[in-house]
Amino acid sequence: MEVLPGNTFKINSQPVSKADLGRKLKEIYDPRPEKIIFVKGDPSVKYQDVIAAMDVARGAGVKVIATVPKDVK
Q1: How many independent structural domains does the chain possess?
Q2: Whole-number Å distance between alpha carbons of 59 and 62
Q3: Tens of pLDDT along 14-54?
Q4: In this structure, how many other beta carbons lie within 10 angstroms of the beta carbon of residue 16?
């Protein structure tokens, strides 16, 4: 999941709005036995926005969250 400016996100390179983020994550992760997500925040996004997105992921059933260093593309 990418956290982008303007409260926008990408999951598997597909744009997702903030309003749809939890529903989309639940849809993706419910059938998966391993509930691991990698989170990458845009350098211009505030840390608190990344944490908020991670909280949404936890609420959608994701168990393990890993952050991706900012220089990884």
Answers
A1: 1
A2: 7
A3: 999 999 999 999 999 999 999 999 999 999 999 999 999 99
A4: 19
8 Å CB contact between 16 and 27 = no
Helix (H) or strand (E) holding 8: strand 8-11
Q: From the CB of residue 53, how many other CB atoms can be counted at a distance below 10 Å?
A: 25
Task: Identify the CATH number of the domain in which residue 33 sits.
Answer: 3.30.420
Cα separation of 50 and 30, whole Å? 22
**Rg, Å, the chain Cα set:** 11
pTM, rounded to two decimals:
0.86
Q: Does a structural domain hold residue 72?
A: no
